[in-house]
Amino acid sequence: MAILVIAEHDNQSLKAATKNAVTAAAKIGGEIHVLVAGSGCANAAAEAAKLAGVAKVKVADAAHYADQTAENVAALVVANAAGYSHIVAPATTNGKNFAPRVAALLDVAQISDIVGVESADTFVRPIYAGNALATVQSADAVKVITVRTTGFEAVAEGGSAAVEAIAAGPDLGKAKLVSRELTKSERPELTAAKIIVSGGRGLGNGENYKTLLEPLADKLGAALGASRAAVDAGFVPNDYQVGQTGKIVAPQLYIAIGISGAIQHLAGMKDSKVIVAINKDPEAPIFQVADYGLVADLFEVVPQLAAAV
Amino acid sequence: MKVLVPVKRVVDYNVKVRVKSDGTGVDIANVKMSMNPFDEIAVEEAVRLKEAGIASEVIVVSAGVAGCQETLRTAMAIGADRGILIESDADLQPLAVAKLIKAVADKEQPQVVIFGKQAIDDDSNQTGQMFAALQGWPQATFASKVVIADGKATVTREVDGGLETLEMALPAVVTTDLRLNEPRYATLPNIMKAKKKPLETIKPEDLGVDVAPRLKTLKVAEPAKRQAGVKVADVADLVSKLKNEAKVI
After folding, report:
1. How many alpha carbons fall within 13 Å on the CB side of residue A165?
2. What is the pLDDT of residue A53?
3. Least CB-CB distance to B216: which of A133, A137, A191?
4. ipTM score of the complex?
5. Where is the Electron transfer flavoprotein alpha/beta-subunit N-terminal domain (chain B) (predicted)?
6. pTM
7. Which domains does chain B have, with CATH numbers?
8. If you measure CA to CA, which chain A residue comes closest to B243?
9. Helix (H, G, I), strand (E, B), or coil: what is residue A113?
């Protein structure tokens, strides 16, 4: 039995989510190969080769994989699927984009967003915004799986896998990247941060979000997040959103400021180790999941907190 | 140009579901059902394309129990022209639904199919991408902006790092994210009008699609409950607890 993990990377370096996917693959059990599809992605492949437990890294290096379009990546994975019992990708926007195409082309189900491995064909996954956990068994010959990164530790380094170039597939030319506006930040990545400072509608506007939350995040070396309400209201860009349909996070410390705690938001952060909630409404549902709740006016206490840490 | 929008009937987003005590699933008896919110955004987008003179007809399709008729009527009250119900009491999983929609698309020949990016019940986030793969069509998932012109779709997508814009030739698949639009409220006259719009009912067998489930649910359990903690008196108390008790800063 062999498992093919599809690497998440930006051509230069491997993204942390790949490491969680490799851990999930190790739990399934079997020889682990990593596929790196990219353009000028040798460095990302070399990083993948260092992950513990990885036996082989296959690299398809071609210009038409530079932008990771779902059509081209899925076709490449399918062309290289023979001999693998499992195809595993992290449940990032990229993994969620191409993996169902792979499953459909192989005529198998996809098991989305797994948080647990029971056996080689049985997996645990959250449903209903994490309000229930389903244990599902796949009857298909090949299991196509996406992995919720917070469900698995990142694999350590220490491997020295062989790196092998494989033939690129044709450029299907279905979709063309026009532009990318990626948020630039010196802060840690939201999904990999140890501490997250997250703001909601209670902040009132984007200016307040910035002036109140940034100094606190700077002091803590934290990433910044937001509730859907704050993103919808335009306080911050979409990639800040934590929740059922945004990013799923599980930092050591999650500080929710001016967030009421809708179930869709809780779905994205309730696995955090320690949750702090600051809200002036003592009845806000966020307090039901918070380890430490501070009922107070955030405009008063957030600057105090930034000064005190 | 026809636009096809698949819609799913799900437990309303405001309902907190309860896991059944025998672990076979969640209790959806007597629970409010609604259209999947992402599908509502998809219907709204399609109707706007029609209002802008880009789409000629908006067809909505739903696969599931007879109650999905309500969901289709809701979509028609927003402005869809007609509905197709693929009626089945079976456990319809994403691959099966993608195949059913494919069979409908083969007949209706839409140029754009707009899906919700995920259903809020099974949270699978698969059907649109699977359909696109089965058709060999391009896809733009998690869309926050859609422009259809000159036989092309230009779609801005919400991705982990920010936004990206893709361009693709039609026919194509779009899946909606939250910020694509704000669906309108259906007005009473439109709800009345929707009752008279055509709604065709077919069966999976009519489409020649095998809908047998590939995944078997062995059990459904309640996740570990997080206990509410303590209320702290002030910032000093909070900082002290984070440092000395939780040891996270």
Report:
1. 8
2. 97
3. A137
4. 0.96
5. 23-211
6. 0.96
7. 1-243 (3.40.50.620)
8. A309
9. strand
